[in-house]
Specification:
By secondary structure, the chain is α+β, with helices and mostly antiparallel strands. It has one domain.
Length: 162
């Protein structure tokens, strides 16, 4: 896993931190993930790495993404403590990479049956339907994520960098 990052284009970042590809994974947000990594490392005997991130320009966006992803992982019984989840890095990366689409049940694969994709969920819609976010927040997230626009957000997979 990589040790570095070029995140200057955006001000706020949902990050994934782990010491192992098998997890657990910390999912949080920060203005500067390398500084946050340093703070977390102080209290952890295992070497930690930033594995991935979603980078945006508004703090409210990372707060909402974090809130939705945490709730979704808790609903899948993957919560350990605080912002730590019993999920492997590959699965956590996929959740960020495909945000707002994810697997509804993280223990099952996405499948196509009778020309229908099964076991997927729109996390923004999930957040709204479960009262995790309100209508205004729903609209704000849809505005950012409806169409990929590199000026609005950026996904980073640091596990691919050597």
């Amino acid at each position: 896993m990589s040790r570095i990052i070029n995140l200057e284009k955006f001000n706020f970042h949902i990050y994934l931190i782990s010491s192992s590809k098998d997890g657990p994974v910390k999912i949080g947000f920060s203005h500067h993930p390398p500084s946050r990594l340093k703070e977390i490392q102080t209290g952890n005997p295992d070497k930690l790495y930033i594995c991935g991130s979603i980078s945006v320009k508004q703090k409210i966006i990372v707060e909402l993404i974090e809130k939705i992803i945490h709730a979704h992982l808790k609903d899948n019984n993957l919560h350990l403590r605080g912002e730590w989840f019993n999920i492997n890095v590959k699965s956590a990366i996929k959740i960020l990479e495909l945000f707002p689409i994810s697997r509804e049940n993280l223990f099952k694969k996405v499948e196509i049956k009778k020309d229908k994709i099964e076991n997927t969920i729109d996390l923004i819609q999930y957040g709204f339907q479960n009262n995790i976010i309100n209508e205004e927040e729903y609209d704000l997230l849809n505005e950012v994520f409806m169409i990929y626009d590199e000026e609005k957000y950026q996904f980073n997979d640091f596990t691919l960098i050597s």
